[in-house]
């Protein structure tokens, strides 16, 4: 977990929610249990809450994100039964505030697949539906009260097609995941111009699989993907369910494209108009829907999936749901959490219907205990000056750069201080401090302190 950073990279929290569906012999089903959880990486529970007790029977949480204005809260989106709509809240997961659940948007129901605070903090982005459920729209809800339809993607029929939207570049660009046509879409928010479509029958990019085979635009390499997101440096991460969906106005149907799901990194070259799979991790089991993949500060990958059918050899894993962190280079397991369910039922699937007999997980979010600070170096530029450099990351994934502060000190004396911007997507930020000091003790006795915008600090000796 530490990677090339230090022990701070193994400290912190993982947030996720789990849901159990009860299935009867006549194949009727309903959600009967759900929890939202924040766990420390050492395995202890920081917060656990029974969703149905606090937010209503049949309700369960799908999208979760740490709140950028105060990480003692999480933005959460609720699904009422399996309607794919529900209310959204701020959840005070650490119990430090007076109100545990703060309803957003006057408690109105919205698409549960995603929720994201706007860049200026005044709006909530999500996925909406157009008239007659034929157009799929990204909506911006203003003032937490009313809706303003901002982007109309006349792309596909079916309100349930879009399952993720990520606003980047100060909300000027949307990265949209559309599961029925196996497509990732980049769209300009103000002009509504689609820049490109990666995958599926409407694809505009040439696809390249992990073996180097080239596929013409209109092909598909990922199927029914979830939580596709941009993580900088032309890399897009997704959970590739490998599920083929067929959607009508009244119902969904699905079948496997492959027997196992996988975690994917796709590099998109907009100049060459290609989308290439540059990293994949076979989970060894199939997740019919849901699933997540994020990149961490170390470069490790954090995936979330759940078991919806027997494995290719006919057996069943010893767990129902899984969070797994793997190293990018050699795909070793760095950290793992397994949710163990009822192991007495063997049948997980028949020809007509996936029996949801497992605990399910939709996504997972990682937050470090403090801003990361490492790679401290000091050199003399002349007899009267030193140059200090270091690397740093913010505490959790954000889609835009955000301010942080540093101080260079010798003992209790602050030599110099200033500000810098933590890079987006948990990518590393390199900072160099040029300081005119009359002593070389800065290199031998100095320390650097980094403070994020919430006042959380990390201090290291040089």
Structure description:
- The chain is mainly β.
- It folds into 2 domains: 7-367, TolB, C-terminal domain (Neuraminidase, 6 Propeller); 372-461, Immunoglobulin-like (Sandwich), CATH 2.60.40.10.
- It is 2% helix and 52% strand.
- It is built from 2 helices and 37 strands.
- The chain has a 6-stranded mixed beta sheet, with no helix packed on it.
- It is globular, with a radius of gyration of 23 Å.
- The model is unreliable at 130-152, 154-160 and 348-355 (pLDDT under 50).
Chart the SSEs and their pairings:
Blueprint: E1 12-23, E2 29-40, E3 45-50, H1 51-55, E4 59-66, E5 73-80, E6 85-86, E7 88-92, E8 101-103, E9 110-111, E10 116-117, E11 123-129, E12 136-142, E13 146-153, E14 162-168, E15 173-178, E16 183-188, E17 194-198, E18 206-208, E19 214-215, E20 226-230, E21 235-240, E22 243-247, E23 252-256, E24 262-269, E25 274-282, E26 292-295, E27 301-306, E28 321-326, E29 333-339, E30 359-368, E31 372-382, E32 385-393, E33 402-410, E34 413-422, E35 429-436, H2 441-445, E36 446-452, E37 457-461
Parallel strand pairs: 18-25
Antiparallel strand pairs: 1-2, 1-30, 2-3, 4-5, 5-7, 6-9, 7-8, 10-11, 11-12, 12-13, 14-15, 15-16, 16-17, 18-19, 20-21, 21-24, 22-23, 24-25, 26-27, 27-28, 28-29, 31-32, 32-35, 33-34, 33-36, 36-37
InterPro entries: Arylsulfotransferase_bact
GO molecular function: aryl sulfotransferase activity
């Amino acid at each position: 977990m530490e990677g090339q950073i230090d022990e701070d990279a193994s400290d912190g929290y993982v947030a996720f929610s789990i849901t159990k569906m009860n299935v009867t012999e006549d194949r009727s089903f309903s959600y009967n249990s759900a929890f939202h959880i924040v766990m420390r990486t050492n395995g202890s529970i920081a917060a656990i809450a029974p969703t149905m007790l606090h937010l209503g029977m049949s309700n369960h949480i799908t999208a979760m994100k740490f709140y950028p204005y105060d990480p003692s809260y999480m933005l959460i989106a609720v699904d009422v039964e399996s309607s794919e709509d529900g209310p959204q809240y701020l959840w005070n997961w650490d119990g430090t505030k007076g109100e545990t659940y703060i309803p957003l948007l006057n408690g109105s129901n919205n698409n549960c697949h995603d929720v994201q605070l706007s860049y200026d903090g005044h709006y909530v982005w999500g996925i909406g539906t157009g008239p007659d459920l034929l157009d799929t729209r990204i909506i911006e809800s203003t003032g937490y009260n009313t809706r303003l339809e901002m982007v109309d993607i006349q792309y596909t029929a079916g309100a349930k097609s879009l399952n993720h939207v990520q606003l980047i570049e100060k909300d000027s660009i949307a990265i949209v995941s559309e599961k029925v046509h196996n497509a990732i879409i980049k769209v300009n928010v103000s002009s509504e111009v689609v820049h490109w479509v990666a995958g599926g029958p409407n694809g505009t990019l040439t696809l390249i699989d992990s073996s180097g085979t080239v596929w013409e635009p209109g092909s598909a390499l990922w199927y029914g993907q979830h939580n596709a997101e941009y993580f900088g440096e032309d890399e897009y991460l997704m959970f590739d369910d490998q599920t083929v969906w067929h959607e009508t106005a009244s119902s969904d149907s699905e079948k496997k494209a492959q027997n196992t799901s996988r975690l994917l990194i796709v590099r998109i070259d907009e100049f060459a108009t290609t989308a290439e799979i540059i990293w994949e991790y076979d989970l060894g089991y199939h997740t019919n829907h849901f699933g997540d993949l994020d990149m961490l500060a170390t470069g490790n990958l954090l995936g979330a999936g759940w078991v919806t059918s027997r494995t290719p050899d006919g057996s069943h894993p010893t767990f129902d749901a899984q969070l797994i962190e793997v190293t990018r280079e050699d795909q070793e397991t760095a950290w793992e959490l397994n949710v163990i369910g009822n192991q007495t039922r063997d049948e997980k699937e028949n020809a007509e219907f996936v029996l949801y007999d497992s605990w399910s997980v939709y996504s997972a979010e990682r937050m470090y205990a403090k801003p990361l600070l490492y790679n401290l170096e000091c050199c003399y530029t002349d007899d009267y000056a030193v140059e200090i450099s270091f690397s740093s990351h913010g505490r959790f994934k954000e889609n835009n750069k955000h301010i942080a502060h540093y101080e260079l000190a010798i003992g209790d004396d602050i030599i110099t201080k200033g500000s810098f911007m933590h890079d987006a997507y948990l990518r590393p930020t390199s900072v160099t401090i040029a300081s005119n000091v009359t002593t070389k003790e800065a290199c031998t006795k100095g320390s650097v302190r980094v403070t994020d915008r919430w006042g959380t600090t990390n201090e290291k000796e040089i």
